[in-house]
Amino acid sequence: MAGRAQPVNPWPGISAAALVAALILGTLAAVALRAEATRGFGPADWSALRFTLSQAALSAGLSVALAIPVARALARRRFTGRRLLIALLGAPFILPVIVAILGLLQVFGRAGWVSDLLGLIGLPPVQIYGLHGVVLAHVFFNLPLATRLILQGWQEVPSERFRLAAQLRCEGFALFHLIEAPMLKRVVPGALAVIFAICLTSFAVALTLGGGPRATTIELAIYQAFTYDFDLGRAALLSGLQLVLTATAAFVALRLSRGDGFGSGLDRAIRRWDGTGRAARLGDGCWIVLAGAFLMLPLASVMISGLGGLMHLPIQVFQAALVSIVVAAASTALLLALALPMATAIATGRYGIVEITGILGLAASPLVIGTGLFILIRPMVDPTALALPVTATVNAVMALPFALRILVPAARQSVGRYGRLALSLDMGERAFFTRILLPRMRPQIGFAAGLTAALSMGDLGVIALFADAEIATLPLQLYRLMGAYQMQAAAGAALLLLILSMGAFWMFDRGGRWHAEA
Amino acid sequence: MLKLEDIIIATGDFTLAADLTVAPGSSVAVIGPSGAGKSTLLEAIAGFRDLRRGHILWQGQDLTDLPPGKRPVAMLFQDGNLFPHLTATQNVGLGLRPNGRLTPSEHEQVQSALSRVGLADKGARKPAELSGGQQSRVALARVLVQQRACLLLDEPFAALGPALKAEMLDLVAELVSETGTTLLMVSHEPEDARRIAAQALLVADGVAHAPMATAELLDNPPPALRDYLG
């Protein structure tokens, strides 16, 4: 429609975008100015770069390679619990990294279940620290994402093609060649690129399972330059390197990927006629059971071990939990204050610059922004005094790209469908926003708020840069307990964090959908 | 009098020209082949499309640069005429106060409009709890309280069955004659046009022609209309 006006005031959204751009670009500029480029990269820096790239490539490759058979099995099998399993595949996105790592240690660690089993048959325990562990954890987080992305590809194959193939008695490799291979060719590069980009900025995983000269990511090296050497010049230089990497990877990933990974309708069942043989059924069953066990066992382990610890938590854990709740609430409020006006402005279809600002956060990593903020704040105040506001802000900015992906389509739909009616009723911009847009978008607002609250609750990133011994969020407190080998308290704290993150997500998401009309 | 003074509406390659007047209080069916620009013409009058040239006037007042909400025009679209999260009463209330709360006397106005369309006891329901015909009635009740001089219908009843659609058109005819509203309605069915519109205007080949008596136009159709009617 060659519309004239729309009942939408774009200026709040443009202002919010300007704030976000100023924050991201400002911190990047601070990093660039502070970086001591003349000093060049030392051998440790090069090795961090090599490790970052190789672990990301390995993690992406393994995640996608394993996801293909799992997604195929999920695409063509019907069984009770299938919907639940597919829904659970979305959970790692909001799962606190440090909780998952504790679970992985309990299952795969030196004293874990798997090592015990190996010991029974006289084999040495698993080595979880170093490259193995980092890749293992990344596969744990990204196998579900890859499975969802690839499953989406499978679901988008029109069912008529499977019907036609069945009629032609096209089975096995021929069917793969005819239908599935072309689909994978379309979907796999995007999935690889997205996971590669995610693993580049890995911090919490590298902090806990990596470390040492041979298993340090750039993100971790930035943190070490800060905390061990307090070498701001080197931290800034590494941040610059990290920025180039993540920006390039994010650009490639956005180019190659089309799906959003939150795609709904993944539990829709498509009737298939192939893969009815015993071997195919057995194979699919194995993949589903193995993938399910790989994802559930660590979580189950945290829950079981945490139950005992929950009763004997030190008081600091509860203090940290309170801090985390406040930070998550502030972060969620800030996110909504930024994302809602931005989504509204983007929905008019006229402010591409707002949309670009929205994805800027993907190019910067939390520690890079943290470094920049530290450099900017330090001349004025003691950065540790601002640890919590900075954490809440960075969490909100990091959640912004995801929130916009959820909110913008809903805002577009409401403006497109009801904009003309509102205009012909002479409804003002403010009334349209509060009386039409907000109520219409409530389910999406709830979902976005839930994601942000959970992400912020479980985040172990910037807070590690800024915090001193006095103050901690729950994830940081959990990390400290693990570092001090207080494993029982750590297990209890992990369960508490898991409950808080999932509870925050559930509360917002459920609240958004409560009594919402179609 | 609604006057389209030598206007041209253009979007991309498509242009539609019109130079015509519609007498106040008359009911005019807008007929013509699909894609000829019937909806475009109504959207231009309602203010949703810019004119490349010319003026639109109502009783001598130039509407051309007024935003849609400031024109003496109410329009019902093919769909999306009600907000699904608001009750029937709230939807009708928007016709009086799109930006605020209703006063008690305005509440009475809303209630009497709902009664007029036969929904006195359905005010608390949301659109999903109403039938298609009842939803159309709510939209008409809102048009009533809006009290605009012109009503434009872009086939809002297209999704209803034949009997229900006829019922709605009769209700529209009653309402516009009670209030003296000028009606322009897009119509695909010659029978609808004959039913409630004494006049009809033909949109074809990039031109919206002046209105003429409906029976005359349909009984002696020009070539473009003859092809369409078959």
Automatic annotation (TrEMBL), chain A:
Q: Which Gene3D superfamilies match?
A: MetI-like
Please report the stretch or stretches of sequence annotated as the ABC transmembrane type-1 domain: 49-253, 321-508
Could you tell me the membrane topology recorded for this protein?
Multi-pass membrane protein
Keyword list (alphabetical) reads: Cell membrane, Membrane, Transmembrane, Transmembrane helix, Transport
Where would you find this protein in the cell? Cell membrane
Q: What InterPro entries does its record include?
A: MetI-like (IPR000515), MetI-like_sf (IPR035906)
Q: Does the keyword Oxidoreductase apply?
A: no
Where does the sequence pass through the membrane?
53-74, 86-108, 128-151, 187-212, 232-254, 287-311, 317-340, 352-377, 383-408, 445-467, 487-508
Query: What does UniProt give as GO cellular component?
Result: plasma membrane
Q: Which GO terms describe its biological process?
A: transmembrane transport
What's the protein here called? Sulfate transport system permease protein CysW
Instruction: Give the organism, scientific name.
Output: Roseovarius aestuarii
Automatic annotation (TrEMBL), chain B:
According to the lineage, what is the superkingdom?
Bacteria
Q: Which top EC class is named for this enzyme in its record?
A: hydrolase
The GO molecular function terms of this record are: ATP binding; ATP hydrolysis activity
Pfam families, alphabetically? ABC_tran
The UniProt record lists the ABC transporter domain at 2-230
Keywords, in A-Z order: ATP-binding, Cell inner membrane, Cell membrane, Hydrolase, Membrane, Nucleotide-binding, Translocase, Transport
InterPro entries per the record? AAA+_ATPase, ABC_SmlMolc_Importer, ABC_transporter-like_ATP-bd, ABC_transporter-like_CS, P-loop_NTPase
Look up the EC number in the record and give it. Answer: 3.6.3.-
Please give the name of this protein.
Thiamine import ATP-binding protein ThiQ
List the source organism.
Roseovarius aestuarii
